[in-house]
Amino acid sequence: MSSDTSNVVSINPGEIYLNKELSWLEFNGRVLEEALFNKTPLLEKLKFLSIFSTNLDEYFMVRVAGLKKMEQEALRISDSPDGMETSVVLTKIRQRAMELTATQVETLHSTVIPELAKSDIKILKMEDVSPEDHEYLDRYFESDVSPILTPLGFDPAHPFPFLVNQSLFLIVRPREKDPHSDSNQTPIGFVEIPSNTPRLIRLPSIANEAGGSFVLLEDLIAANLDSLFFGVDIAATYTMRVIRNLDYNLLENKVVDLLKTMQREVVNREHQEVVKLEIDEDTPQELIDTLTANLAITEADVYKIARPLYIPGLMGLYHLPMENLKDPPFNPRLPNALSGSEDFFSVVSKGDLLVHHPYDSFYAVTEFLNYAAQDPNVVAIKQTLYRSAGDSPIIDSLITASENGKQVTAVVELKARFDEKNNISWARRLERAGVNVVFGFVGLKTHGKATLVVRREKNKLVRYLHVSTGNYNSSTAKLYTDVGLFTTNQKLATDVANVFNLITGFDVLTGTQRLQQADIPKRLKNISISPVNMRSTVIGLIENEIDHHRMSGNGHIRAKMNALVDRDIIDTLYRASQAGVKIQLIVRSACCLRPGIPGISDNIEVISIVDRFLEHSRIFYFHAGGEEKLFISSADWMPRNMDRRIELLIPIFDQKTKDRLKNEILEISWQDCVKARVLSSDGTYCLRAQDASCDDTQSQKRFIELARKGGIQSMPYDIAIRYKPQLEEGQRPIAKKRRDRKVEKAAAKR
Fold first, then answer.
1. Is 473 helix (H, G, I), strand (E, B) or coil?
2. Residues 534 and 521 occupy one common structural domain
3. Cβ pair 390, 718 in contact under 8 A
4. Which whole-number Å values give the CA distances from 51 to 30, 168, 748, in the listed order?
């Protein structure tokens, strides 16, 4: 559905839209900024430097790889609303990525490493290691490192080796024995730095248990190359990494078995073309020329970086017992509704339960599944699985439920980016346990998050529903901010039941038996679903706000999401702004909307919050002439969410839940004056100016305070999420209060 934008069609798209890829890079720049702030604890600075690198790797593997593919296929215009030429986008990406990487490296070397040394955490060069520690390192190399290594030569007798994606390699340059040799190929050696061995090797002579001195694994290997390359005098070593294209595009008419196709795709794509080469900044140009020729890349794909490459490999330091160098610890709280010993179904049947992760513990979700798996009255469980944790209590509960004779259905998304291998493994395990495993559709990702539990109560079947903005992943649930809703609202539960039937039945969304899109909403009376009617629903809500504002003058939209890219939605927001509707957007990463353009977006404000936890929840508020409509969703306002994924937009009916979403979560987030960056019309972000109206609100810190004040102190998180109250006489994992012996003695005297 396209909105009427006749008042702006004559304007160059670049003047009213920001570029999607460049906007995302600016988001990663905001992640990097967290490492630059003086108030960020030292090991947290290292964490943000690491996240920046991990983000950038994924960006190149997917987005840059996709742009390069478009350029190869002569697709001149990128898929961003601004219509920038693909070649121009790639040039600007390289320029900005180099600037940001230079800032990252400078921060590591000028701030983080020196400050770590002041805190007795040192990374030493091999020449600075004491003789005693040298002996230890020699023994360690022989016993724990050397047996893993394989030297790879590139010379007339050996072809250029395959370099594994994202692995760190040593490049070994032998000293030339005969400078007058007729061979035009300089021999080169490669050694892959094993990823299953600690990157940082702690030296035993340092007595400090908290800190310590370390050497890098690649430096230890470089010092022992004579044991790998026989009879060769080593002239120099350098480090390098290659980043490969991990994008893929499955053609619907060529896929017969989705599981087998994905298994082949996961194997094949590991050998895809290189899109980026990271290499030591002092590497000779002739060596770089040899690498670019054999990797089939250009100089534009080469990024010269000061050692050490791959900063995430230094994150072993983060786990040192030096809490003074980290954020204050926070253990998620149990929702106050779980303070008693009532079973979970009794709690939810009394009223909707909203959980706000990671402040409210993910334990509520695992208990819901635990009770469903064990309760003899539960007859069926249906759940979508997009990304699951490596050691998942969710998977365990589904297997237990199946073993207990319940009808269990798991919709496993095999195409979840970077989790394909894990999801294939989970799918096989679930199938072996008797779970009905469904893989969704070839051309669509099942991204909606929902669990439906069917329970027999008083001779009738009652549906219990959990819907969420985040994945069923106990690991990310303590790092991502998300909201989840438990409810027995039968209008919502019936719609979600129909969604499961839609997914598990015939392929009526993309296959030969495709239904007319108008047919599906007739079965879904309350929720909206992509790719059928979510975009039209969102646009309709914005247009209704325009109508209400014309009548009452109090139009207001407040929305929180990860990304805003969809041009049709942006155009409708522009029209709402022109009509006078007040629009406040909290967009974490890419935002293609330009706020503050005179006559177009004067009434739109956009902020981005980057802090300790990754902002991930999607919440949408519309004033609606005082009716106040609120929604939570699995979807961002992006074309991929609207057109290429199965997503859910869930209306909130319960007034108490509405109030918390509007007056607590959205309001406190919008009032953030510490970690919120304001987007300007030119695409730049800056921290909010501190003025009299700002009360130093830091939203995430405030949410922690609210959780501590209103929640129940829990056992440690990793214990709590595996706690089974059915086996503990109904008791939940509530932390035992510490005995105050002074109070006890005083009481005894009284």
1. coil
2. no
3. no
4. 11, 17, 53
Of 75, 74, 72, 91, the closest CA to residue 83 belongs to 75
List all residues 6 or more positions away from 374 whose beta carbon is below 8 Å from its beta carbon.
400, 404, 724, 726
Cα–Cα distance for residue pair 351/549, rounded to 1 Å: 33
Q: Do 291 and 411 have their domain in common?
A: no
Q: What is the pLDDT of residue 253?
A: 44
- Is pLDDT at 63 greater than 50 in this prediction? yes
* Number of domains observed in the structure of the chain: 4
The residue among 494, 509, 525 that closes a domain is: 525
104: phi then psi, degrees, rounded to nearest 5 = -60, -50
Q: 29 with 300: CB under 8 angstroms?
A: no
Arithmetic mean of pLDDT, 100-115: 98
Instruction: Tell whether 194 and 152 lie within a shared domain.
Output: yes
- Give the residue-averaged pLDDT of 482-499: 97
Residue 479 falls within a domain, yes or no?
A: yes
Which CATH number does the domain housing residue 648 bear?
3.30.870.10
* CATH number of the CATH domain containing 137: 3.30.1840.10
Which of 356, 357, 447, 466 is an active site residue? 447
Active site residue 447: yes
Q: Which domain holds residue 663?
A: 530-705
Check residue 114 and give its pLDDT: 97
- Please tell me whether residues 78 and 100 are part of one structural domain: yes
Asked if 200 and 320 sit in the same domain, the reply is: yes
Letter for the amino acid at 685? Y
Q: Closest by alpha carbon to 355, among 336, 370, 329?
A: 336
186 and 298 housed in the same domain: yes
For residues 183 and 254, membership in a common domain is answered with: yes
E strand map for 221-369 = 234-244, 274-280, 302-305, 353-357
State the sign of the Cα–Cα–Cα–Cα dihedral 566, 451, 609, 311. Answer: negative
| CATH number (domain holding residue 60) | 1.20.58.310
**Phi, psi of 535, deg, nearest 5:** -60, -45
The residue whose two tokens read 């030292």 is 42
Cα 625 to Cα 151: distance, rounded to the nearest angstrom:
71
Per DSSP, helices labelled H in 515-566 are 534-552
pLDDT level of residue 215 (50, 70, 90 thresholds): very high
In a domain, 1, yes or no: no
Identify the sign of the CA torsion 687, 688, 689, 694: negative
pLDDT in tens, 633-676: 999 999 999 999 999 999 999 999 999 999 999 999 999 999 99
The set of residues, in sequence order, having a beta carbon less than 8 Å from that of 30 and lying 6+ positions away, is 608, 610, 677, 685
Q: What is the pLDDT of residues 518-532, one digit of tens each?
A: 677 778 999 999 999
Q: Which amino acid is at 620?
A: F
Amino acid identity, position 605: E
pLDDT confidence of residue 602:
96
pLDDT (mean) for 707-721: 95
- Collapsed DSSP state (helix, strand, coil) of residue 398: helix
Q: Tell me: the pLDDT tens digits for 363-411?
A: 999 999 999 999 999 999 999 988 776 568 999 999 999 999 999 999 9
- 282 vs 305: CA distance, rounded Å: 9
pTM over 0.70, yes/no:
yes
**Torsion angle, alpha carbons of 176, 180, 185, 191, to 10:** -10
DSSP-derived secondary structure letter, 693: T
The answer to whether residue 7 sits within a structural domain is no
Helix axes 420-432, 393-403, angle to 10 degrees: 20
φ, ψ of residue 249 in degrees (nearest 5): -145, 105
- Alpha carbon 74 to chain centroid distance? 31
156 or 704: which leads in pLDDT: 704
The C-alpha atoms of residue 711 and residue 16 are separated, in whole angstroms, by 45
- CA–CA dist 687, 521 (Å, integer): 43
Residues 6+ apart with CB under 8 A from 507: 441, 513, 514
Q: Would you say residue 261 lies in a domain?
A: yes
